[in-house]
Amino acid sequence: MRQSQTLIPTLKETPADAEIKSHQLLVRAGFIRQTASGVYSFLPMGNKVLKNVEKIVREEMEKAGAVEMLMPALQLSDLWKETGRWYTMGPELMRLNDRHEREFALGATHEEVVTSLIGDEVKSYKKLPLYVYQIQTKFRDEKRPRFGLLRGREFIMKDAYTFHTDQESLDEAYQKMYQAYSNIFTRCGLNFRAVIADSGAMGGKDTHEFMVLSEIGEDTIAYSDTSDFAANIEMAPVHVTYEQSDEAALDLEMVDTPGYKTMVEVSEFLGLPLEQGIKSLLFKVDERFVLVLSRGDHEINDIKLKNALAATNVELASEHETKQLLNTEVGSVGPIDVPEDIEVIADHAVSVIRNGYCGANKNDKHYRNVNPDRDFKVSSYQDLRFIQEGDPSPDGQGKIKFAKGIEVGHIFKLGQFYAEKLGAQYLNEQGKQATMTMGCYGIGVSRTLAAIVEQYHDDNGIKWPKEITPYHVHLIAVNPKNQEQQVLAEKIYEQLQENNISVLFDDRKERPGVKFADSDLIGLPVRITVGKKAAEGYVECKLRENGEQEDLHVSELIDKINSLLK
User: Fold this and answer.
1) Please, where are the H alpha helices in 301-429?
2) pTM value?
3) Which CATH number, 3.40.50.800, 3.40.50.970, 2.40.30.10, 2.30.40.10, labels domain 473-565?
């Protein structure tokens, strides 16, 4: 492609609203343009990269046995109401009415549509298992779109769905998709981790997120420093053996703590370590209230709490609710003399606290010399806290470290939730009706593009991996007015095309400095510069990845480029 004939509007200045490198560089290099908050147009170069990611996705999906289809983005509300997600998805689900006042959603995901479709079309066990997928635009009304393609209101996604007769078949599909996703992100050149995750609003269990390691990631990954264990911090189990002190239990004592509310403040005031404190938080769990206890230096993990109590919604009780139920302010809540209708549960670490301290359910007062079981009752001890750096890895190998990650893929074992709600049934081998078992698997295609740039760039621009790059070679004629340079550049351009090497030919009438700056910004793997040695048949070959360069005779060029691109 001749650069003079395509649209690559590069910018010298960084856009004011671009906070992260991928957003800055994709805009400056002319790959994307914002058309509304969280909504982007993909210009020719950006579109080519998207298609390259999609090509890898399609190849690996087909290897896994999935067939491509395309479903509508406009979805009737009826299906969403049958599963209940019309009411639980919240304001992020984009909703609209047609001229007949029928309610629709713009698809954020397609579980409802695909389950209804397959349930109508597949009636026999002989057609199962079935793997289908699509690559399509999705919509989500983000409250605060940010980070360019990483958190938008319109984005490109690959979503796949599998349908099965039993759990064993689903488990097999899950492993195939796990491997396919690992292949996809490896081929995209990404440094990533597959981490244990929470299924959230999707439902189901057994789920992994594929996280690209990046300092700007919005998720925290807990991983072992010596094994391949990795989990989203929300899901990482804590396997710590807490030792009971042999210290004698002292008499319970109420003390004044005027104006001291937080665990740190109370710890310093009492001159006792945080580890000896009992943090008490009142949660609203569905329609009931539960008092949750943790050690003073630990944080309650609301995802673990939700899963432990098999709840749908978990949130902290409001200040008003806390005062109404416990007759105290939030900073003085404790587990002693709690009303009987409020269940008390605790993290395992609380069970071994000896002569600790906690709120007294009286403003500006705390108890010290508190001992669990003697001074208050706990209905159950469970793993309820966030894992911390330095904790033992749950797999027994090494210690936990933290890293930031960008989620680019997520796979779920959905089970029968959607199939039961939408009546996706089939006739089994005995001729009886049975409910399908499902899995679903998503990749953020446009998000992957941004994640690649986050890992592949320098101060001058993007450095595209070979399988993703829009073109493999950037051919530059330093001075198009020079006859020898122009003739040689045209000859090389033809040779590259004849050898199926994709090339962007900068034939613009621009100053050399502008061409070289744009070339670094755009970031194609190989740059061929036709300059002063054109008369002798020599050109400069430079690698964008590491800056290595050498002069080559035109007769050596094709073999050299093929070698570099392998």
Assistant:
1) 302-308, 319-326, 417-422
2) 0.86
3) 3.40.50.800
